[in-house]
Write a sequence for this structure.
């Protein structure tokens, strides 16, 4: 998906609607206890509701794609844990900066609360990987999370994770 293209904009608008209306029901969360460790489940529960919703959607996409590897599914669920409590406006500014250049995030950074939020988004893959490692995730899961935005250097599972992330 080319940043700034009609397809990109369509995907970003879909993500915005999902972010603003994000919910995770008790029925959706309950099965996670069967395949996550208590520390992984605590990490999931500590994520922003939009990132929990997105993680569940990524896992559903991966499963629909035939992926059953637990390490990949855990990576899909927790890959955005490092975004923290970042709100909607910084996420929009960050996405626009990715599409149209760093001048845009630079222009947004002086606004109250934006500099820290934009830095958190820029570092979220590494932060998410570190949090996953601290929660006891496997080394492979941690590496899938760390390289979520660089599918060219990833194995096939990493490439599928990236596609699921973009599609969800």
């Amino acid at each position: 998906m080319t940043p700034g293209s009609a397809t990109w904009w369509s995907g970003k608008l879909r993500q915005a609607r999902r972010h603003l209306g994000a919910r995770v029901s008790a029925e959706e969360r309950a099965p996670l206890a069967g395949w996550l460790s208590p520390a992984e489940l605590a990490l999931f529960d500590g994520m922003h509701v939009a990132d929990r919703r997105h993680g569940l959607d990524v896992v559903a996409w991966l499963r629909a794609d035939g992926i059953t590897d637990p390490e990949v599914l855990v990576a899909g669920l927790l890959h955005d844990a490092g975004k923290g409590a970042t709100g909607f406006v910084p996420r929009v500014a960050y996405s626009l900066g990715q599409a149209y250049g760093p001048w845009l995030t630079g222009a947004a950074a002086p606004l109250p609360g934006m500099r820290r939020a934009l830095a958190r988004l820029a570092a979220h893959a590494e932060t998410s990987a570190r949090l996953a490692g601290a929660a006891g995730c496997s080394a492979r899961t941690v590496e899938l999370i760390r390289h979520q935005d660089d599918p060219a250097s990833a194995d096939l599972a990493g490439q599928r994770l990236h596609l699921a992330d973009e599609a969800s």
In short: The longest helix spans residues 49-64. Residues 43 and 66 are 25 Å apart (CA to CA).
